[in-house]
TrEMBL record:
It catalyses: Release of signal peptides from bacterial membrane prolipoproteins. Hydrolyzes -Xaa-Yaa-Zaa-|-(S,diacylglyceryl)Cys-, in which Xaa is hydrophobic (preferably Leu), and Yaa (Ala or Ser) and Zaa (Gly or Ala) have small, neutral side chains. Keywords: Aspartyl protease, Cell membrane, Hydrolase, Membrane, Protease, Transmembrane, Transmembrane helix. GO terms for molecular function: aspartic-type endopeptidase activity. The active site is at D124, D142. One of its GO terms (biological process) is proteolysis. This is Lipoprotein signal peptidase. It is found in: Cell membrane. The chain crosses the membrane at residues 12-35, 71-89, 96-114, 134-154.
């Protein structure tokens, strides 16, 4: 087996998932300590810091459910996280783009899982708007998940290359 085909080497990127979790939980703690719930603090045109609690998923999906969604989203995120770690472990040494995408999603998912387990909701505080349209508030974990997902989508359109530079 060639050195460039060795799997498991992409686990070295797990530090990035840990960084996402630390940044996410740190900024959520700061937002919780410094902001009043639901009270927007203008930062610049079209951007406020607004502390909100999301018991649902993206865009408050299922936020109005009876409470079962908390455990559903915790279980789902933990299962997806295990799958992502196994996927990361199976990547070849030269599949760095995919590895970074996976660990960004992993770090974001675990940051939000922590909130759901400890608080019963996800802390959101980044709030963009345009005139009377308000984009749903989000956090650093959501940002990492979105960037990772976009990287995966872009990867679909990239030509796969073997380490020697030739298309597969």
């Amino acid at each position: 087996m060639k050195d460039t085909e060795t799997t498991g080497s992409q686990l070295r990127w797990l530090w990035l998932a840990v960084l996402v979790i630390v940044l996410d939980l740190g900024t959520k703690a700061m937002a919780t300590a410094m902001l009043s719930y639901g009270n927007p603090v203008p930062v610049m045109p079209m951007f406020n810091l607004t502390l909100l609690h999301n018991t649902g998923a993206a865009f408050s999906f299922l936020a109005g459910a009876a409470g079962w969604q908390r455990w559903f989203f915790i279980t789902l995120a933990l299962v997806v996280s295990v799958v992502l770690v196994f996927w990361l472990k199976s990547l070849r040494r030269y599949e760095t783009w995919s590895a970074i995408a996976i660990v960004l999603i992993l770090g974001g998912a675990l940051g939000n899982v922590y909130d759901r387990i400890v608080h019963g909701y996800v802390v959101d505080f980044l709030h963009f708007y345009w005139n009377n349209y308000h984009f749903p508030a989000f956090n650093i974990a959501d940002t990492a998940i979105t960037i990772g997902a976009c990287m995966m989508i872009l990867d679909i359109f990239r030509k796969p290359r073997e380490p020697d530079g030739n298309p597969e």
